[in-house]
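Example record for the data management plan.
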Amino acid sequence: MTQGFDIKIIGERINPGFKSTKALFDNSDLPGIQALAVRQTEAGASYLNVNIGARALTDAGFMAEVIRAIQEVTVVPLSFDFPSKKVQEICLSCYDVGKSAGRLPIVNSITEHRWDLMELAGDFKFKVILMASERVEDGVARSNKKADEIYSTAKRCALRLCRENGLSMDDIFVDLSISAIIADTESLNRNTLDAVKLIGSDPDLAGIHMMGGLSNIGQQLPPKAADGSDLKHCLENAFLTLAVPYGFDTILGTPWRGYQPLPEDHYVLLAYKNFLEQSGSNALRAVRKFYKA
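Corresponding structural encoding:
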């Protein structure tokens, strides 16, 4: 749980998208990976996401070594971040639930179009991250951009997981895409927040978790806000300030960043609220307000 919000963090750093972590993988540096796992655990991570990149498809032995090495130094359960059923099977086979105090791992992630991962539920028990960003329509995967599309996909898939696989709502994390505001001319941020409200108010979905990766929201923006503070971090906190009261309770993020609700009069929160009311070129103009005190 991170200070300031009643929220859990899935530690994101064991991922080759971070240059320092990629170097650990390139050098098969298991002690370095263990140290990174411990640092995230000590910073308050509730889960550790594990993604070793394309090497997972060609080096199953290393994948197994990484999982076992992490479980030697932390009792925090793991989240396996691969779209491949073959890789997920290796991960689940290596995972020792006893070393995580009986807590189940997470399969990250399934979509309505990538449901084959649930075939693993016949042999393993796990929680799931469910991507609500796409649906299947007439056999074709289509992107969800509107709030009702995100909500209806999340509900349909969550109920299917409970009905067909015996999962509880507590076993399901709905991943809601959080878009970069610099290119958001289609009200995607507003639609995501509206979807949070719809999911959080549906009694059929009581107990389900809502989550997202916040790192995109300030992408390609200058780093500093009008007062010289970290604009990206302020934007992440602005989103959380609006989403957490409606049931958004999990972050895929860096545990030591620290997340705090923003005061109602904080100008980044006010500018973000103004941005949410705009669309098209007006939305782009509203982004400028983040740089005006």
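Summary line stored alongside the record: Residues 8-261 form a domain with the TIM Barrel fold (CATH 3.20.20.20).
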